[in-house]
């Protein structure tokens, strides 16, 4: 036993005791924040000291401090406005920061554009399907079929079609998010009660009026479900698609090449960026949901 | 002739189900005049709700004829001839109380200031002023039901179709709402068709009581009430009231003897 391992054990027990004590206090905003924070810090500390104590090779698992160093040293190379002028308009002020350039390439260009195109197309399709029983019978099984295609198989084909740039990544994301969004929206469009529908009928409401004032509001909780599921799918799709061909930038590209160069700290730094971006993306959609579907029983609490 | 609001002749409606046809309505003849308060009373399955839904063009009859304001129910519906109050309030939870009452006005294309004025007026009519910006789930069941009545009143249709609007409410709230409904009827001079399965409610409210029996749904008795239009709650202890209630009960019992 060495000091690192003993330290990790002591820290773990101390943090555990602290959290148990905090959980038994009257729940306040502070304790609600502190308990998961202490939990997270404990995980990092145990990770750090166990890796050091057992002398795990950085290739297998770098300690968090090393990942953090890499993260900071990369971000310290962030460029600012003058760099944009020097590099041309595409650089977004990333300077020499690889993490930033990868983030822009994969998340902003690949995942976000694919997300908006895919969710938008699915939404429009769902509204169209809803109006026509023929499309509902014809398109949903086809959608099912497309959703069942393995994305790993489709990605290289889409790279062939749309090139190495972000466009092929956006295409993969479109395919990934389309179906969950479609199914959720179609289901949501059926989510009114018979009474709510009858009411519209007694008012002799037109189709657009029914759509805007009843069906879409009633479908909102389902639509948000589709949007939330799609946030994580979009990021996964954009990263995985880069494994099959990309310019020399992008989170997926970086992960696959840096693994080859055994610099696992960079791989982990990318994972940190992906985790932050993914959580933030999900969080923004969840906040939007809370703000607009506050009336739904699941949001009222 | 122009006084007739609803006229049904030999009206029948048969639902085809997997267990064979269900005769929800059979050979129903009925006339409702302008300004009448007509209650439909009978056990479950006697077709009283179905009859109301036929008037509202929410169900299609399979035989006989029916007119609403001299038109087919569909034409009447497209002309927004009636306000319908359902068994449950059925307010849209994403709209405030004011927003729910505004809904028919928005659909029917009323101007903004007209909408504001009408919402204010009907909220006062049902004694819900001050609750305009609350959401439905923040109100009690009785208040929600009053809001749904306000919603049906907002566009000022001459005919109100009410399907057991107070069925889910307790006795005290129900008495209170019955009183308010009578007041409202006196103020607005509307024609009201009201489905209930409470004998006191039917007798207290109505100028005409239609007693129905189930399987097949048919009218067994039509009672013209002799009570005055002005009705305090304690009229329910008068001999006249009890006599009418007795006749309704007899009618219901006769209907039950059939099966």
Walkthrough of the structure:
The complex is a heterodimer of chains A (301) and B (259). Chain A has 2 domains: 3-56; 95-300, MetI-like (MetI-like fold, Orthogonal Bundle). In chain A, helix 10 (207-242) runs antiparallel to helix 12. Chain A has 301 residues and is an all-alpha fold. Chain A is 80% helix and 0% strand. Chain A has 13 helices and no strands. Chain B has 259 residues and is of the alpha/beta class. Chain B has 2 domains: 4-81 and 159-257, P-loop containing nucleotide triphosphate hydrolases (Rossmann fold, 3-Layer(aba) Sandwich), CATH 3.40.50; 91-156, no CATH class. Chain B has helices at residues 48-55, 73-78, 97-107, 112-125, 141-153, 171-188, 199-205, 239-257; strands spanning 4-17, 20-33, 37-41, 63-68, 82-85, 159-163, 191-196, 208-213, 218-224. In chain B, the strands form 2 sheets. Chain B has a 6-stranded mixed beta sheet with strand order 5-6-7-3-8-9, sandwiched between helices. At the A-B interface, helix 9 and helix 10 of A face strand 5 and helix 3 of B.
Write the layout of secondary structure elements.
The complex is a heterodimer of chains A (301) and B (259).
Chain A: H1 3-24, H2 29-53, H3 64-75, H4 81-87, H5 98-131, H6 133-148, H7 151-162, H8 166-189, H9 194-202, H10 207-242, H11 251-260, H12 264-292, H13 297-300
Helix pairs in contact in A: 1-2, 3-12, 5-6, 5-8, 5-10, 5-11, 5-12, 6-8, 7-8, 8-10, 10-12, 11-12
Chain B: E1 4-17, E2 20-33, E3 37-41, H1 48-55, E4 63-68, H2 73-78, E5 82-85, H3 97-107, H4 112-125, H5 141-153, E6 159-163, H6 171-188, E7 191-196, H7 199-205, E8 208-213, E9 218-224, H8 239-257
Parallel strand pairs in B: 3-7, 3-8, 5-6, 6-7
Antiparallel strand pairs in B: 1-2, 1-4, 8-9
Helix pairs in contact in B: 3-4, 3-5, 4-5, 7-8
